Amino acid sequence: MSIRVRNVSKRFLNFTALADVSIDVASGSLTALLGPSGSGKSTLLRVIAGLERPDAGTVELDGEDATPLSPQNRGVGFVFQHYAAFKHMTVRDNVAFALKIRKQPRDEIRERVDELLELVQLQGFGHRYPAQLSGGQRQRMALARALAAKPKVLLLDEPFGALDARVRLELRAWLRQLHEETHTTTVFVTHDQEEAMEISDSVVVMNAGRVEQVAPPQVLYDEPVNEFVMSFVGQANRFGDGWVRPHDLQITLDPNGSTREALVERLAHLGHEVRAELVRDDGERLTIQLTRERADQLELASGQIVYVRPTRETIF
Amino acid sequence: MRRLAVRYAALGYLAVVLLAPISMIFWRIEAEGVGKAWSALTEADTVHAFKVTLILAAIAVPLNTIFGVTCALAIVRRRFPGKGLLNAFVDLPLALSPVVVGLSLFLLYGRTGWLGPSINIQVLFALPAMVLATVFVSVPFVAREVVPTLREIGDEQEQAAHTLGASGWQTFWRITLPSIRWAVIYGVVLTTARCLGEYGAVAIVSGGISGRTETATLRVQDYYENLNQAGAYGISLALCGVALVVLAVMTLLKPKEGAA
User: Fold this and answer.
1) A88 closest CB neighbour out of B163, B165, B179
2) Separation CA A103–CA A22 (nearest Å)
3) Is the dihedral angle over the CA atoms A143, A148, A150, A152 positive or is it negative?
4) Concatenated DSSP letters for B68-111?
5) What's the pLDDT band for A190 if we cut at 50, 70, 90?
6) Alpha-carbon distances, residue A185 vs A1, A147, A172, A192, B106 (angstroms)
7) Is A98 touching B (CB cutoff 8 A)?
8) B35: CB partners within 8 A, 6+ apart
């Protein structure tokens, strides 16, 4: 099911959360809403779910205007950052909730819940209460619960934000896999650019209530439309009037016509890669990534004077 | 050492302020004669007084439970003009002396009051006014217990229920009410205790007619004024028994409320 958001605005008291936002989410895609906190990404997701009513604008689900519909009638699955587990219900009852509300026959509910618990690898946990689960397990339960009624759209609000790094990586890969199996149109909110780049087909970059750019991860990195996207997605150095990625700077030991002088301030050895922190003669700081071989070849050391030249520069 | 001192000071304070006067009742009943106290308790008018008290509680408690939960939901979950006022007014009965409540009802429904002349049924010196007085003084307890619990659980579970297809009503019965149930029960226990113990407001509006509009607490007063001290102590003892039951129920509920 496709999602079409048109000219949506939303204010909270004196804070503009969304300012005339329009996006299209293709049916069956996995889309990330990426932005710093306060950029409006969660509000946009909640507007799509119907949990927040926009001051202006429309939301279309599958070509039909869903703006006046309550969340109850939108047929979307929603996953909250802090799980929103029904604490007084067992895992089974949590997962079965949407099916019981729809008054489905008991046998069918049992079958579907078994299927979902297997999908989220919580077989054998059905009779536990949420308080007896780890964070990752709780979030998997919340996912199963959201998927129970076979929603046409799955919306996730910073789903892995409250989990520790290792569980985060696991669930991230698992979500991508789940999406490949079910092809449910999925939109998730994140402030972690790596997370967005790694699993989504399309990334919506948001800032201060506006959409800055919508593009596949690769395009976003290679062809950012403005300075915000350039600096928010991946690392970037200011270089004169333009911007340069850390791996698009070349270091040499001798000057030539187009190089600039810089002082090596610090070197960090990150396995195969070396990251050099440089200060240019005019005081501007640069971060440069180079291979270990290249660093060895140059015999780089902190305190050394080198010459840098961008191999690929972006000017806005 | 200091912790022990604090503990004994607190216990000592409670002993002097609460336990000593109450234990006097036991001691006096012994002195006056258990038989006399018992016969006062089984007198027709006393039995009737207890019945009246129970009827008042049976009406006021459900009313204030429904009102309290609704009011708490409005205070915590909704935004509307006058919310601050509602929040403050819920506590009014705690701040106001029951005698003043009784007097206001008297003025409102009396022969020269605003509503008195236009209502055909007997309000004052009858059950209606006593119900009004009891409801008034027991308003705050359920709302006061439920408000903090509602705040604490937040509204994410309710939002999740909505996205899963539940209506507002279904969400209330399946999600909200089970989450606040211990607070509601605790509030109901407190409300019941307040209703059973009410004296001042009811004393003014009921007229305290034996065998008709007399409640258990009014009966104590009645006996005491008529120098039937054994009777007064007997009923007091019965009310103490109710208080102990209430205390026991609350103690049983308290840890569960913390865990839920």
Assistant:
1) B179
2) 37
3) negative
4) HHHHHHHHHH---TTHHHHHHHHTHHHHS-HHHHHHHHHHHHST
5) very high
6) 6, 12, 16, 20, 66
7) yes
8) none
What is the per-residue pLDDT across B207-219, written as a single tens digit (0 to 9) for each? Answer: 889 989 999 999 9
Q: What is the 3-state secondary structure (H, E, C) of A79-124?
A: ECCCCCCCCCCCHHHHHHHHHHHCCCCHHHHHHHHHHHHHHCCCCC
**Is residue B255 very low, low, confident or very high in pLDDT (cuts 50, 70, 90)?**
low
CATH hierarchy code of domain B34-259? 1.10.3720.10
Region A6-29: mean pLDDT is: 95
Phi-psi region of A150 (alpha: psi -120 to 50; beta: other; left: phi over 0): left
pLDDT in tens, B217-247: 999 999 999 988 888 999 999 998 888 888 8
* CA B11 – CA B17 distance, rounded (Å): 10
* Tokens of residue B102, six digits: 């009784």
Give the residue extent of every domain in chain B. Answer: 1-32, 34-259
User: Helices B177-197 and B44-77 meet at what angle, rounded to 10?
Assistant: 140
SS3 label, residue B252: helix
Size of interface A-B (CB pairs under 8 A): 60
**pLDDT above 60 for B260:** no
**pLDDT tens-digit map of B68-97:** 999 999 999 999 999 999 999 999 999 999
Summarize pLDDT for A201-215 with one digit per residue, the tens: 999 999 999 999 999
Q: pTM for the complete prediction?
A: 0.87
**B159 interaction partners in chain A (CB closer than 8 Å):** 51, 71, 78, 80, 84
pLDDT at A221 over 90: yes
CA distance A125 to A130: 10
Are the C-beta atoms of A134 and A162 separated by less than 8 Å?
no
- Token pair in block for residue A305: 């004077």
The predicted-structure confidence for A91-149, as pLDDT tens digits, reads as follows: 999 999 999 999 999 999 999 999 999 999 999 999 999 999 999 999 999 999 999 99
Q: Which residues of A touch B178 (CB under 8 A)?
A: 88
The pLDDT tens digits for A299-315 are: 888 899 999 999 988 98
Cβ-nearest to B157 among A71, A73, A86:
A86
**Inter-residue contact B230 to B36 (CB < 8 Å):** yes
Sorted by sequence, the CB contacts under 8 Å of residue A115 that are 6+ apart come out as: none
| All CATH 2.40.50.140 domain ranges in chain A, comma separated | 236-310
Element holding A289 (H helix, E strand): strand A285-291
* pLDDT exceeds cutoff 80 at B1: no
CATH code, A236-310: 2.40.50.140
Q: What is the CATH number of domain A3-228?
A: 3.40.50.300
Lowest average pLDDT, out of A4-13, A53-62, A281-290, goes to: A281-290
Distance from CA of A96 to the nearest CA of B (A): 10
List every span in chain A annotated with CATH 3.40.50.300.
Answer: 3-228
Compute the distance between CA of residue A59 and CA of residue A69 in angstroms, rounded to an integer: 10
Q: Using N-to-C axis directions, what is the helix angle for B44-77 and B229-259, rounded to 10°?
A: 30
Q: How far apart are CA A269 and CA A293, in angstroms?
A: 12
